[in-house]
Write a structure and sequence with these properties.
- The protein has a seven-stranded parallel β-sheet with strand order 3-2-1-4-5-6-11, with helices on both faces.
- The C terminus is likely disordered.
- β5, α5 and β6 form a beta-alpha-beta unit.
- The chain starts with a strand and ends in a 19-residue tail after the last helix.
- The chain is of the alpha/beta class and 351 residues long.
- 47% of the residues are buried.
- The longest helix is centred in the first third of the chain and has 25 residues.
- It has a domain of 237 residues: NAD(P)-binding Rossmann-like Domain (Rossmann fold, 3-Layer(aba) Sandwich).
- The protein binds nicotinamide-adenine-dinucleotide.
- The site of nicotinamide-adenine-dinucleotide (NAD) has 31 residues, from α1, α4 and β5.
- Nicotinamide-adenine-dinucleotide binds next to α1, α4 and β5.
Length: 351
Amino acid sequence: MKLLVTGGAGFIGSAVIRLAIARGHHVINLDALTYAACLENVASVAKNPNYAFEKANICDAETMDRILTRHTPDAVMHLAAESHVDRSIDGPGAFIETNVTGTYTLLQAARKYWETQGRPDTFRFHHISTDEVYGSLGAKGQFTEETPYTPNSPYSASKAASDHIVRAWGETYGLPFVLTNCSNNYGPYHFPEKLIPVVILNALSGKSIPVYGQGLNVRDWLYVEDHADALLTVLQKGAVGRSYNIGGENEARNIDLVEMICAILDRLKPSNRPYSSLICFVDDRPGHDLRYAIDPSRMRDELGWRPSVTLEEGLEKTVRWYLANESWWRALQGREGVGKRLGTASSESND
Ligand code: NAD
């Protein structure tokens, strides 16, 4: 297939591109190269004749039209987004702009392109979203595809809005879409402001490891390469107009996750004291959802997909990757906001 992947210089988009190219697909990577982007993430495929790059903003309608017409993709995989919850608390405007207006703009361009092509049934608009649209769970239960949307952060609200817009374009204009809502990802090339890289990198440099609140928040962790595989599965086998929850079957409390990473580092790069001695508890994030958990039965029963990596295996692979790729993360540590406490909803907010 010829895939137009938006956000392909980011964490998950780049994993999708590396896997798609390895499987023989043609890929056009469309990315605005914001603070979160790193073209190094796709350096391994950049010279492949099946790969092309377009620096563009999804909010730019004319450019979206031009890129779709020039490359004639069979599918759009839409991952471009503002993705960091803490940044959405400090500056929600960029999230509304990219995640809502940008998705709308891209959808309109995709619709126009699809109509010009004669409305092929085989075309897909694959919208990649998050389980955070469902809000927070208590100690029990799991999100199914029928769980009502209850987003609590500016990030999840903007993603929820984009999900609704995509669905409406399917219902109203017939645009063939699939939608996926995924749990927290981790793995290689994860931007150094997100929890798991922060733990690894702070530990390695002997800095305190900040854990929000009491570390009791629970997330269902999915290894990014498993997510990429799941996305290609949904794209090729998913039913038009259907949504799929993708989970890792790996629930963990933040404090337990952080302690697992410290234990792996103690083994792989011993220091004079256990890395867990660096853990410190900091003020919680405002509106911090307590627990997310995915009911994976639709992916498993309808599409035969399950994650292949356990949390223990995935964390070890991830720690090994950060140990072996210091030049990658060092280069990103200088970017604006990285290493600072963000998202406290203080008076210093941008919006
Ligand atoms: P990321 O922040 O690492 O990458 C986002 C990419 O989008 C960046 O390369 C950035 O330059 C690009 N981008 C941002 N605004 C753009 C714009 N206006 N035009 C074009 N490109 C733009 O994000 P990620 O973690 O890879 O997440 C990718 C997608 O998956 C997002 O839609 C996110 O909501 C969703 N998701 C992420 C997770 C997770 O745990 N990271 C979980 C579930 C769903």
